[in-house]
């Protein structure tokens, strides 16, 4: 039996008649944990393992893994830790991959990256296919420190991937900060909750000149933070840092959660539709083919820039540079149909750049009840593999359940979670055929 405790303190139990669940521990310095789920009755699908791991959050207790296990797949949901060195997280993921490859009952392994997990999974697979040198070139803000290729996966699924931890950190920077490190001093000229700047709780409409000024200020603050972090890295590598291996790097008014994604939740014109037409999967199982449009509603009318708990990006020098730092150009912007002005090759903190180095079959899916969904199209457009699939789930939130706030009638979006997991399971059926020799 799986028991989940909701925010209201009530327990929700999930019957466990058809799947097993096992807690495993990696023999590493973190003693990293994972929950392993598998169908009690083996079948062709159970010879395919799915690895689910986020870049910053613990996904062991979320319903994603049991949902796929109930559809016949072997699933390992791994623990992660907030912020910190991306290279270390890649090493932890490599440990889980080695464990699964040693299982004689598993033929294929598919990586699943949700939200910020897409950054981790694409970075891992790019290194697994090409070696660490793929992220050690001169353009990189920070060079990958892995020494060897880890076990490569046979496929990858990016499910409502965000635009990359680097981009989401950039979009969360409050340019109103007057003095770096202090959240109490804010310039009102950059207040996105001020009606004079275009805010409206029913749906903000920020003027073009304000948006341009705001994004440019975010870019400049991002450039300054990268310069500061590189300066501290140089000290560390010369043995002149505050510690021998790494040191804290706290950024005021810059944490990544949705309330700090500046202007995205408030202005519905931002990231509102795809460029092309794609399959849109509805909660009743039907599929239409069309330009995909967000159905979300306005959110986030509170600013957390002055708070430590919700506002501060609590990282380290190496953690920031490896998992959040990327360069932009002067024309950095967030449009109705995507993010522009980003040097995707300057960092391995974004799936949009990482996917260019991956060649295994890939599935990209977006949820129209949020604003991350266009990342699926951007990743798809950058993806070089021949076998790639893109689709969207109508009305699903970033966590896959129906966006009830956006429904015109109760139940309008149907069972979005079932529609999603059924689609993913069917897509992975391509791996249930007899295993071919891997390169």
Strand arrangement within the widest β-sheet reads: 3-4-6-5-7-8-15-16-10-11
CA-CA gap between termini: 40 Å
CATH fold call of the largest domain? Rossmann fold
What is the count of distinct domains? 2
Which architecture of the largest domain does the CATH hierarchy give at level 2?
A: 3-Layer(aba) Sandwich
Major sheet description: 10 strands, mixed
Rg on CA atoms, Å: 21 Å
Oligomerization: single chain
Q: Label the overall shape.
A: globular
Q: Helix segment count?
A: 9
Give the CATH level 1 class of the largest domain.
Alpha Beta
Helix fraction, binned, reads 10-25%
Mean pLDDT: 95
Order of helices and strands: EEEEEHEHEHEHHEEEEHEEHEHEH
Tell me the fraction of residues in β-strands, as a range: 15-25%
* Beta-strand segment tally: 16
Any key phrases for this structure?
439 residues; alpha/beta; Rossmann fold; 10-stranded mixed beta sheet; 16 strands; globular; disordered C terminus
Summarize the structure.
This protein has helices at 64-69, 86-101, 117-130, 165-172, 208-237, 317-323, 351-354, 374-382, 416-427; strands at residues 2-5, 11-14, 19-25, 33-39, 48-52, 74-78, 108-114, 155-159, 248-251, 273-281, 287-293, 313-316, 328-335, 338-342, 362-367, 388-393. It has 439 residues and is an alpha/beta fold.
Structure in words:
The protein is α/β, with parallel strands linked by helices. It has two domains: 12-164 and 344-431, Rossmann fold (3-Layer(aba) Sandwich), CATH 3.40.50; 167-258 and 302-335, no CATH class. The chain has helices at residues 64-69, 86-101, 117-130, 165-172, 208-237, 317-323, 351-354, 374-382, 416-427; strands spanning 2-5, 11-14, 19-25, 33-39, 48-52, 74-78, 108-114, 155-159, 248-251, 273-281, 287-293, 313-316, 328-335, 338-342, 362-367, 388-393. The strands form four sheets. The protein has a ten-stranded mixed β-sheet with strand order 3-4-6-5-7-8-15-16-10-11. Helix 2 (86-101) crosses helix 3 (117-130) and helix 5 crosses helix 6 (317-323). Residues 435-439 have low confidence and may be disordered.
């Amino acid at each position: 039996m799986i028991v989940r405790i909701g925010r209201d303190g009530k327990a929700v139990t999930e019957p466990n008649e058809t799947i097993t669940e096992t807690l495993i521990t990696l023999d590493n310095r973190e003693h990293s944990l994972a929950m392993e789920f598998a169908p009690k009755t083996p079948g062709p699908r159970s010879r395919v393992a799915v690895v689910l791991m986020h870049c910053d959050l613990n996904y062991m207790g979320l319903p994603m893994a049991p949902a796929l296990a109930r559809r016949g797949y072997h699933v390992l949901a791994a623990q992660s830790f907030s912020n910190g060195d991306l290279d270390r997280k890649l090493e932890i993921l490599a440990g889980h991959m080695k464990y699964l490859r040693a299982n004689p009952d598993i033929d294929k392994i598919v990586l699943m990256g949700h939200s910020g997990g897409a950054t981790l999974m694409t970075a891992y697979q790019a290194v697994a296919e090409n070696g660490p040198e793929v992220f050690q070139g001169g353009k990189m803000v920070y060079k990958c420190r892995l020494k060897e290729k880890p076990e490569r996966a046979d496929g990858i699924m990016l499910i409502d991937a965000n635009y990359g931890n680097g981009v989401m950190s950039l979009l969360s920077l409050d340019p109103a900060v007057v003095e770096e490190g202090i959240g109490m001093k804010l310039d009102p000229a950059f207040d996105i909750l001020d009606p004079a700047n275009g805010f409206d709780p029913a749906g903000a409409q920020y003027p073009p000149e304000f948006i341009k000024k705001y994004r440019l200020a975010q870019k400049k603050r991002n450039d300054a933070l990268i310069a500061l972090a590189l300066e501290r890295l140089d000290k560390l590598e010369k043995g002149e840092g505050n510690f021998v291996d790494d040191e804290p790097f706290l950024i005021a008014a810059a944490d990544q959660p949705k309330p700090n994604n500046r202007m995205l939740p408030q202005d519905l014109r931002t990231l509102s539709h795809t460029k092309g037409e794609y399959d849109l999967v509805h909660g009743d199982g039907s599929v239409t083919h069309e330009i995909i449009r967000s159905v979300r509603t306005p959110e986030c009318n509170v600013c957390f820039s002055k708070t430590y708990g919700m506002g501060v990006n609590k990282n380290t020098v190496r953690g920031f540079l490896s998992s959040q730092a990327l360069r932009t150009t002067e024309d950095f912007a967030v449009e109705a149909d995507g993010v522009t002005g980003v040097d995707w090759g300057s960092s391995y903190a974004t799936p949009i750049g990482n996917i260019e180095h991956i060649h295994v079959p890939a599935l990209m899916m977006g949820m129209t009840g949020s604003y991350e969904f266009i990342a699926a199209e951007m990743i798809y457009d950058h993806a070089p593999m021949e076998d790639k699939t893109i689709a969207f789930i109508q009305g699903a939130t970033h966590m896959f359940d129906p966006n009830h706030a956006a429904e015109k009638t109760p139940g309008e979006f149907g069972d979005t979670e079932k529609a999603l997991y059924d689609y993913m399971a069917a897509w992975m059926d391509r791996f249930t055929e007899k295993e071919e020799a891997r390169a």
